[in-house]
Amino acid sequence: MTFALSREHETFRRSVREFAEAEIAPHVAQWDKDHHFPVDLVHKMGDLGLFGLTAPEEFGGADGDFTSLCVAIEELGRVDQSIGITLEAGVGLGILPLLAYGTQEQKEHWLPDLVAGRTLAGFGLTEPGAGSDASATRTRAELDPSTGSGQAEWVVNGSKQFITNSGSPITSCVTVTARTGTRENGSPEISAIILPAGTPGFVAEAPYDKLGWHISDTHPLSFTDVRVPADSLLGERGRGYAQFLATLDDGRIAIAALAVGCIQACLDLCVEYAGERTTFGVPIGTKQGVAFQISDLAVMAQAGRALTYQAAAMKDAGAPAKDVKQAASIAKLYTSESAVTATRIATQVFGGYGFMEEYPVARFYRDAKILEIGEGTSEVQRMLIARGLGLPVE
């Protein structure tokens, strides 16, 4: 299977790079310092068609491939990781579940604004005591058939944490997993329910004070007797957790693209700096100790990009789900850990300047660590890879 980018993909890459350099690069340091979420930029990304890359034309999308989305995420992430994750989560965790599991009515209601970048949607899986462990989910939804309106309603109580795009001024909804019953074997029945922002009892708590991703919108959520119509169920009742796991498989490829952008940024910054910064009368790039470290960055970028776009090509080609899952985990594991290493190398190459917030490498250093955690930790990826190899790992 080929995973070489087409001429159209490369042309698209250049257009996104030009957009990022013009619309993000001049402002990103101040946005990061202020923890400012740039709504106007999100709208501009929507105007460029970034949120609609994989959506059908009937909802205003380009009906394109997943590879194009990865290209866009990589190029945005090369300038700033927070902006890259805003797109990744907006599409991968907001739009794609609606496309995959939503009814026609749900799609027609939510997708046009999401695809246009006028609004954002969140994905609520993680809780204070639950993430990969579905049985630990404590958020509950009970179906109340006897409401005053005559229409049955879900009544949701619980909380979620670390939810991206969940409390911004343009967040329209968050899809959450909740216990909707108990199976015959005693395990919880987990379903997915769409909660519109602004519904009474649905509160996006104060944003987190994060180590990195300062521009990204991230909140804990609480639900107190949140009532939504019965038709707010996303997909089949009891299949919510399985739906979200399938969503995460795609998301891991997109996170790998974000990590590749981080690695490429470190490479670009280091090549420029090592050619200009002099010690003992010569550029530091003439020193093997520096040059070899930067060479390692080039290897990481090339290898990570190959793994990422191979996985994306497999998804676009309709490869078996288990093969895509394996490729996604391998790409996510390698690129996220390489991104953390790359930012450490870049900070070292910059020396004392790398420790100063006025230099982008400091921001990338802070932003990189979450790549090893979000959408499945490195430990989870190793477990999934081992299972894919047929090993009896728990």
TrEMBL record:
Residues 7-117 form the Acyl-CoA dehydrogenase/oxidase N-terminal domain. Residues 123-226 form the Acyl-CoA oxidase/dehydrogenase middle domain. It comes from Aeromicrobium wangtongii. Residues 238-389 form the Acyl-CoA dehydrogenase/oxidase C-terminal domain. Belongs to the acyl-CoA dehydrogenase family. Residues 127-150 are annotated as: Disordered. Pfam families: Acyl-CoA_dh_1, Acyl-CoA_dh_M, Acyl-CoA_dh_N. The keyword Phosphoprotein does not apply. Keywords: FAD, Flavoprotein, Oxidoreductase. Its cofactor is FAD. This is Acyl-CoA dehydrogenase family protein.
